[in-house]
Amino acid sequence: MPTHILGARLIDPANGRDEITDIYCQDGKIIALGQAPSGFSAAKTIDARGLVAAPGLVDLSVALREPGYSRKGNIASETLAATAGGITSLCCPPQTKPVLDTAAVAELILDRARESGHAKVFPIGALTRNLAGEQLSELVALRDAGCVAFGNGLANFTSNRNLGRALEYAATFDLTVVIHSQDSDLSEGGLAHEGPAAAFLGLAGIPETAETIALARNLLLVEQAGVRAHFSQLTTARGAQMIADAQARGLPVTADVAMYQLILTDEALHGFSSLYHVQPPLRSVADRDGLRQAVKSGVISVISSHHQPHEADAKQAPFGETEAGISSAEILLPLALTLVEDGLLDLPTLLARLSSGPAAALQLPAGQLSIGGAADLVLFDPSSSTVAGERWHSKGRNCPFIGHCLPGAVRYTLVDGRVAFVG
């Protein structure tokens, strides 16, 4: 329906806009900013005075758990949770059951996402069949079915030769690869960052070199193949510096960090709470600070939730026997606003890392508020607050931030001009 958004502070980093204005939406598009177009008659008016209007957040890693893991979540529940966090577009990783390595699985996910009618879903296909690191998936067929990029998650390739050939094949068809850098030999059996906290707690450690050695190899292979690559889930300050060096050499690489890695460190493990069990692990204070500076400088241009919902039983065993992951998509914006509260980023820069940055990294049609473009936006109150967990839509409550009072509150999330969430 024709919608008039009245008096919002519009912040659109992609177009360099920061102004108080009215927004006019019709037929799923933004048709005007400022003055109403001739003949426009609003069927719905949203009083957004005092609110910020920003491009809907673009999250490059939200595990939807469907097909195959419905006890943890499903497409309907997790896309609704995403809209509660201000997310209008999201990428789902290929770790489904069956693995997202065929067009049929991609089409199933997209069909169910359309039926649910919440956030827009962009699947990331499996780079290799069954994520086994051996035989390539049918990448072109997956692209044609709607996959926007291809990755193997934390599953390593069986050989560097296989990985190199996969990257060369992707480059031939101008496909984007999403790379997680963690050496399986160095990380095997590890539960926490190798450092004083792990030693004190008696937890097997994962050294910084598990990331940096794999990252060095991957960057060299990316350079050799000439492929467009996005490095996901960086956890170390040294890794961020390696990305900066690669970008300075002109490599077409981007990187993201999990929002929780910008807040938490391995010191959180002292209570042995399984809510802090993640892979790759929470790192040191120095690593967190290095990641924060890389986000500030733009070396890391993307902040993602890396949302991984679990059923309650998955987190109730002793720490080392629990499943890794945090459910946090629906508080992505309030969590991110802590970086503004801490003085690390100004609001337009933060919103760039949450919208235009991720959209550019995977070349998605999202992340900006342009006339004629999709009316995907979030309206939030920066002066209010959110108590995490008061309203919870994800099937996974495995979130260490539940009960915390976070800055800002999402009031409306619009997808194609339709109100998908009201806070």
Automatic annotation (TrEMBL):
Keywords: Pyrimidine biosynthesis, Zinc. GO terms for molecular function: allantoinase activity; dihydroorotase activity; metal ion binding. Pfam families: Amidohydro_3, DHOase. The keyword Zinc applies. GO terms for biological process: purine nucleobase catabolic process; pyrimidine nucleotide biosynthetic process. Residues 52-236 form the Dihydroorotase catalytic domain. GO terms for cellular component: cytoplasm. Residues 341-420 form the Amidohydrolase domain. This is Dihydroorotase. It comes from Stutzerimonas xanthomarina DSM 18231. The lineage of its organism: Bacteria, Pseudomonadati, Pseudomonadota, Gammaproteobacteria, Pseudomonadales.
